Amino acid sequence: MPKRAIVGGMTDNQPEHQTPISNAPRHVVWWSAGAASTVTAMLVLREHPDALLVYTDPGGEHKDNARFRDDVEKHLGVKVIVLRSEKYVDHWDVFEKTRFLVGPGGARCTIELKKRLRQQFERPDDIQYFGYHSGERGRIDGFRAANPEVDLRTPLIDHHLFKPDCLGIVERAGLELPITYRQGFRNANCIGCPHGGMGYWNMIRKHYPDAFDRMAVQERELDNAVCRPGGIPVWLDELDPDRGEMYDEPETECSLLCVSAPVDITAKTDNQPTSKQPQT
User: Fold this and answer.
1) CA dihedral 160, 161, 162, 168 (to 10 degrees)
2) Three-state secondary-structure class, residue 103
3) For residues 94 and 112, is the Cβ–Cβ distance under 8 A?
4) Which DSSP letter does residue 124 get?
5) How far is CA 163 from the centre of its chain?
6) Among 257, 79, 247, 77, which residue's Cα sits nearest to residue 167?
7) Which domains does the chain show, CATH number per domain?
8) CA 255 – CA 249 distance, rounded (Å)
9) How far is CA 24 from CA 7, 123, 200, 258, in A?
10) How does pLDDT run across 194-222, given as a tens digit for each residue?
11) pTM (2 decimals)?
């Protein structure tokens, strides 16, 4: 079982990660316990077997994400470097200590639990790979504008892969996605993400009522509604259970690219059992 190195926090009694000294740029894959970043890792490791898989663990994700991380490590034969904040336990801790949820510039928890850890880890000459898929080209422009120093690579876009393709590739590789996907969520983010819309929060109400109630109280205390359709605040304690567009089933359909493009990136899974189908 590969050991996970930790940066930014003392967990699992592991020392801070030390990367071997080299004059060559590092190939860094930012893995996030999801389908897109996992397929990105598959593609990059095919070309760069020494690539580093790095995960910024925000502390508030479902515990099944750790199971998925272990499965990915075993499947790919590499360890995932885990970065954790020394200052904050999870996203709820960020809300409490900073007294801020989300605004036009985004959520404070993203900055504290993701961006700062990435900036502490990265080197100026790193080649960095992110799991942006072909449906997220607009997000890339925003990321590049906000992070001009990053040498950004997007293998999924290079291979014309969309999110449904990634979901299919991961399942066909014999990897069971985190439980939040199977519950109908579009990703494996923290339980109670302030970026979520009305449909997302109604799904949280259904599967994680304690998190829903906690955020409903939190946003009133901070006078900051997380749902603002059209700029109009909709408070969770007033949210109609029928509002929103989050579906009850995961996005599992697959295009032809899912079948044709990744043939050799799943070659290592010939002896793997077939993935379980999503449960609804």
Assistant:
1) 150
2) strand
3) yes
4) T
5) 13
6) 257
7) 6-19+26-187+249-269 (3.40.50.620)
8) 18
9) 22, 11, 43, 33
10) 999 999 999 999 999 999 999 999 999 99
11) 0.80
Number of helices (H), then strands (E), belonging to the chain: the values are 12, 8
State the virtual CA torsion across 6, 9, 14, 18 in degrees, nearest 10.
50
For residue 279 the two structure tokens come to 């449960």
Q: What is the 3-state secondary structure (H, E, C) of 42-61?
A: HHHHHHCCCCEEEEECCCCE
Pair of tokens at residue 39: 């397929």
pLDDT at 111: 92
Collect the ranges in the chain with pLDDT lower than 70.
Answer: 1-22, 246-280
Residues in the chain: 280
For 19, 27, 158, the CA distances from 51, given in Å and listed in that order, are 11, 5, 18
Orientation angle between helical segments 64-76 and 35-47, nearest 10 degrees: 20
